[in-house]
Amino acid sequence: MSDRFLALDKLSLAYGNTVAVRDLDLEIRKGELLALLGPSGCGKTTTMRSIAGLMTPVGGRIHLDGTDITRMPANKRAVGLVFQSYALFPHLSVFENVAFGLKLKGMRGTELETRVTNGLKSVGLSSFANRKTPELSGGQQQRVALARSMVMEPKVLLLDEPLSNLDARLRLEMRTELQRVQKESGVTMIFVTHDQVEALALADRIVVMKNGAIEQIGTPEAIYNHPVSAFVADFVGFENIFAVRHGRLVTAAGGVMLSGALPDVAGLAWRPRSVSLGSGPLSGTVRGVSFAGGTREYVLETPLGTIKAEVDAALPAHGLGQTVAFDLPVAGAASLRRFG
Amino acid sequence: MTRRLFAPLTLLLVLVFLIGPFLIIVAASFSAGDTLAFPPQGLSFKWILKVFTVESFRDSFVMSMFLAIGGTFAALIMGIPASYAMSRYRLPFSETVRTVVSAPIIVPGIIVGLALLRYFVVPIGVPITLALFLAHTALVLPYAVRVVSASLNNLRPDIEEAAVLLGSSRLGAFFRVVLPNIRGGILSAFILGFVTSFNQVPVSLFLSGPGVRTLPIDMLGYMEIVFDPSIAALSSLLAFLSIGIVFAAERFLGFSRYV
């Protein structure tokens, strides 16, 4: 049961005649922190909106905590949503924003005051209660939005691109904050993002989406180390991706044999740092070098196509135009079950 | 040197051009003489006081106030939902509706007045007061829609969704988070509509009938018979009323943001 705390069964969503999500199956555990990861237009935001009840599915069902909520109005679902733009009420103070939902529930007086005050305290905004929301910084506005949803004690809290509007320093801070709030409250959290770093850092489990369907579901480690398809591999930073056919790599130069037997897979993918540079049966010309602190990044023009390699910066540098030997070690590659 | 004087001098000329006639009218209303004249002969408040004793002025003032307040109110009742629908939903004819709604601003009042009289009031036999009310409502509607639309477009639609997810109904979200945030726009639309309706001449001229007149029409009629400074006095009073309203609106609402 608790593995199916929130379940999407054959969920299909469409805007008019345009299908956004097709036959999506997904089960989310109670208390899980799940990321919906994918490029814009992959259906992740649409899926989130349908869980919130802001969009009615054209097919399939949604169950939350044992109840079919497919047709339940958004205001009865006990699902919270922190909008990308925060969507605070500009005419209300911080306190009144957070109190909004509780007041609608009929809460008044000291109980209301206590709940709102605690909500603000939990996001570190106690001293901002009487401020108008447009006066706050982006990070503060997001905390208000978070508190506003959390005081409602939602069964599921949805977050739309929670970190994308924040600068780098605040992003790290907010990431920690979200994890803390989630651990303290035990709320089931689903957030939508197009940023793999964000998803890997925050989530217990990642759902990678493409063209309205799930491409892969797994832990951050699984997604990062064992992408199942070229799409996922590309998304999590494998820059050298090749199809495999008849035991050979499919490349610009035709089929290439590698040292060592190729596994029976649809494709192989190497991160730049899995490419070994300086020795090996293959060779290419250096077309780009850039220093990246601890490592040096190379762009090689090779008979296989463009290869990106990243090696320890302490090793002697290869100059532009130099010919360098390299190898694509099969042991360091991710095996792709699907190519595409 | 001449270059530096050019701009201030131009400004001064424009101000004289704009405010001069108004100052003359104001000066004429304090005249002690019996005819409308400038420069005024002597100084007295008798014409200002006389304005309040002319019965037809009182009746037509009440009529004008009724049309301006009632008409603007009716226009807002229709205009707010219409603006909301046009700004939030992609409706099939929303551009057409926008154009049709703006028509009373673009089409000359004389034509609107004549058309209403010839093809609406006369054939159907609509009572004069009702005809005036409907006409003023239609004339104010474009301002209501434009000003309210402008402030709706400045408001993020997702705050309504946020309100719904916090337990509000769709309608409740409109009253709880949309209306309070476009309050300034609505009040501005009301003031603009009120002033437009109150100062309206051509349409009212066609539609006014026996015993039912708006104040500007009554003033025109009065001037054709009597040529004393009470007209100047009344004009000054009305001008100060308008100035007062607009000044207060700017002071408290930031009126110029919406218009």
From TrEMBL, chain A:
Pfam family, one: ABC_tran
Entry keywords, A to Z: ATP-binding, Nucleotide-binding, Transport
Cellular location(s): Cell inner membrane
Domain of life: Bacteria
Zinc-finger listed as a keyword: no
Sample GO molecular function, one term: ATP binding
Domain ABC transporter: 6-236
Any one annotated GO CC term: ATP-binding cassette (ABC) transporter complex
Membrane-related topology note: Peripheral membrane protein
Family matches, as PANTHER family: SPERMIDINE/PUTRESCINE IMPORT ATP-BINDING PROTEIN POTA, SPERMIDINE_PUTRESCINE IMPORT ATP-BINDING PROTEIN POTA
Family note: Belongs to the ABC transporter superfamily.
Protein name per Swiss-Prot or TrEMBL: ABC transporter ATP-binding protein
From TrEMBL, chain B:
Compartment(s) where it occurs, according to its Swiss-Prot or TrEMBL record: Cell inner membrane; Cell membrane
Keyword field: ATP-binding, Cell inner membrane, Cell membrane, Membrane, Nucleotide-binding, Transmembrane, Transmembrane helix, Transport
Protein name: Spermidine/putrescine ABC transporter ATP-binding protein
Domain ABC transmembrane type-1: residue ranges: 61-249
InterPro entries, sorted: MetI-like, MetI-like_sf
Organism this protein belongs to: Pararhizobium antarcticum
Family that this chain belongs to: Belongs to the binding-protein-dependent transport system permease family.
Domain of life assignment: Bacteria
Higher taxonomy: Bacteria, Pseudomonadati, Pseudomonadota, Alphaproteobacteria, Hyphomicrobiales
Coiled coil: none
One annotated Gene Ontology cellular component of this protein: plasma membrane
Pfam families to which the protein is assigned, alphabetical: BPD_transp_1
PROSITE patterns: ABC_TM1 (PS50928)
GO terms assigned for molecular function: ATP binding
Bilayer topology annotation: Multi-pass membrane protein
Membrane-spanning parts: 61-85, 97-120, 126-145, 186-209, 229-249
Listed Gene3D superfamilies: MetI-like
